[in-house]
Fold this protein.
Amino acid sequence: MGSMSENSKDSAQQRVDQIQSFQRELQQLQAESVFELSDTQREQLGSYHQALLSQLKQRHDIDTSEQGRQLSLGMRVVSLLGALALAASVFFFFYQFWGYLHTWAQVLLLASFPVLGLVVTLLLASREAAGYFSKLAAFTCFACFVLNISMLGQIFNIAPSARALLLWGAFALLLAYACQLQLLLYAGLLCLMVFVVFELCHWRGFDWSSAFDRPEDLLLPSLAIFLLPLFWRQVATGFAAAYRVMGALGFLFTLWVMAHLGSASYLLWDRAVIEGIYELLGFAFAAAGIWLGIRQRWSDTVNVGSLFFLFFLFSKFVDWWWDWMPKYLFFFVLGLTAILALLVFKRVRRGLEVQEALQ
Amino acid sequence: MKKYWVLGLALILLGNLLVLLQVYGNRQDVSGKMRLTERELTMPYGYRRENSGITLQLQWRMSYLEQPDDDDDFYRRRAFPLSKVQQEEWGLASEPARQGYRSARARTAYVVLEYDGEAHRKALAIQQARVEEWRGLETTEQNQKGLERRQNVYKHVLRGSRLYAVDVGLDRAALEQRYSSARHLILPAVVRPRYTKDEGWRLNVEHLQVASVYVPRPYRDRLAGLEGRRRQEQSPRFVVDVQWGARGEPWVAGLELLTVSE
């Protein structure tokens, strides 16, 4: 019973939602006398769906009601807050007592925290269907590893290095894939992107603290992260979107910064020219992100593209009008622009619906 | 799940091993050692209820390499002037002189710190002369305030850190040849060139790569009774033997409390 595609919790939840939508639509059709099932068919369908739902609920601990879904959302929030609190507790616990320990004891304790965290996380991940406790443990484990490396640096007075980011990023990704935790995936990708920028700076002979003096170094790593899901298929729900969001955010944010900070560019041209070029690129890439997102049905990319298109547009309005236009008029024009954008999106959506109907 | 176990443990072990190997490599070669008092190594601010560890901060100043202006601010970090030869050594001669806050990117270089040497005596002499200058002025309220400010700066120099940055360079070996006395320390620092129309290219020492030193047990126990930072009029309360390794990373090799004024 059930197909192979219901092996993950997310796909199981999708199947449940599908069944419930089907049942609601069937009821509606019967009420409007459009379609009627025979008693035998109704009984067969009903017992099949009931058995499937109870099997999926037992295997994956999914929600079969709206109230259950609301409660699950609340549990996720509580899990996140609990993880943050536990992580802070670990930090402060160590700070409270580290001064009383000899160096060898400090090293042992610091190394054992993430090992213990890893044991607990992976045990919970293998036994718990819902994943709330394993996700909480995963966050805490990650915090322990960050504490481990950073405190060793303090104890032995080590010069700060960007290479710690590589270790933390890799560990965050490992935990993210083990527990299917999107938030740790974001944290891991952020660590790795920043590490790449710092290392590029270091290879060029500069100190990593001046890495963001040239924000353009972030462009290529962001693009690489955006394109990665095309070459490496992501099974876990939301992971492909996470790569696209991080990549798009990094890329478009860099273009936005360069559109205002031409003096930080590698290009040795006039500052106004550099900023103008980056403005045009920003509009073009934001629009391209919206187009690509609509075409590929990537709502995440559409959202990021739309957000930055508006950022670029509003920045332009500020450059043109802020100094001389009365403020009430300025914000009125912003509001009108938002209304115009809504009308444009509405028209685009109608066009897409017509296209889908014709297919 | 098994692969996550293996990879996770491997990452944790690798991270810790890399750090410990780095520490071992640093301590194999002692590149500098110095006996510094609380004037140069200050305690952390405030009450340490939530943090039982003690990390001392290394205090240092810029030396007066040129005659200062009348309105020179002793506390402001002055920049090292650069000759044409030095500009080429730093690859700055061909770089366009961009105005603004960040005209060039920060690099890791080596700064030479001199302990209780000519730079400290020169700073004392300059501040003493300033005090005398202000004493000689007409007694007005404004001049009185100016005199008090000058006296405070003089006391700060007299009782504060005796470590002064006297030189900076990219080639550590060349600096070691030039500054080989026990009074000199050569430490890695983050340095940023900056350009202005009036002064040309100069080097700002933004900060030392490692400007603090953690005090391990049993030395930490000797400091446990001391609360907060020493006040300016107080004598230093301890002296620390600090050693620096091949990577310029320090460690505490000895610590004694001082019972009499220095």
Notes: The longest helix of chain B spans residues 2-27. Chain B touches chain A through 49 residues (CB under 8 Å).
